[in-house]
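quick one, 125 residues, struct below
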Amino acid sequence: MNGNLLLGLGRHMLPVPRPVWQRQVASGEQGNRAALGFMTDDHHRVRDFAVVELPRAGASLPPELFAERLGLPLARVKAILDELEQHMTFLFRNTAGAVTWAYPVTVDPTPHRITFSTGERIYAA
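---
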């Protein structure tokens, strides 16, 4: 790869100077780090579990399942789910408190369906 970036405007492709796009990438990285700075290892474990298990289960995931499978106290799981949802970062729960959506997958019907190499099928957010 030559490191050039081209910006398409209509039928024209315009080169973007390297310092300009590198500055934009760096500022995006800093913003992502700041937005995710609240997350502990347990936050990542809970979020990752949701993304992996939603396609396997094909149904919403109650907090008790997270606690059991991850070996975390139920109160801790509920607090983590609250924080992840409040930050509008990665997941959404139904009125019963079960996770139905963890980016990029959801058990709620959407126009988008994905199939994993393992055969699991689920809606995509």
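DSSP finds four helices and seven strands in the chain.
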